[in-house]
Amino acid sequence: MYTIMLIDNSQQFEQGMRRILSGAGVEINVVCVPDSKAALTILQKDDKTDIIISDIDQPTSGGIDFLCRLAPEHPQSRRVVVSSSQRFEMVKYAINL
Fold first, then answer.
1. pLDDT tens for residues 18-35?
2. Spatial CB neighbours of 1, under 8 Å, sequence gap ≥ 6
3. By the 8 A CB rule, do 16 and 41 touch?
4. CA distance 39 to 34
5. What is the distance, to the nearest Å, from the Cα of residue 82 to the centroid of all Cα atoms in its chain?
6. What is the C-alpha separation between 31 and 35, in angstroms, rounded?
7. If you placed Cys at 27, which of 1, 77, 82, 87 could pair as Cys (CB 3.0 to 4.6 Å)?
8. DSSP per-residue letters across 39-96
């Protein structure tokens, strides 16, 4: 079983990702949190998350800051960045973290 954390404050995003992931053909545990602060709290307690899907634009804390902090603290986690941002350089930077 894989554990996937979705970090976004949009219920539509969560529902859409759950639909997509349910068709993956493998057993998946999906953990949804509204922002990176909540994600870090969970990750500090339980480091068994396999994949982290995070929006760059978050209302309470920046997704870029989160990814910068996440990479050295949880190097085994795979990270997926999603964004509707038109700022290509910011998205490119986040992908390369």
1. 888 888 788 999 999 988
2. 26, 27, 28, 29
3. no
4. 8
5. 8
6. 12
7. 1
8. HHHHHHH-----EEEEES--SSS-HHHHHHHHHHH-TTSEEEEE---S-HHHHHHHHT
What is the rounded end-to-end Cα distance, in angstroms, of the chain?
26
Scan for tokens 């480091």, then name that residue: 47
Q: How many CA atoms lie within 13 A of 59 on its CB side?
A: 5
For residue 56, the one-letter residue type is: I
CB 13 within 8 A of CB 6: yes
Token pair, residue 79, equals: 């990270």
Distance CA 41, CA 88 (A): 29
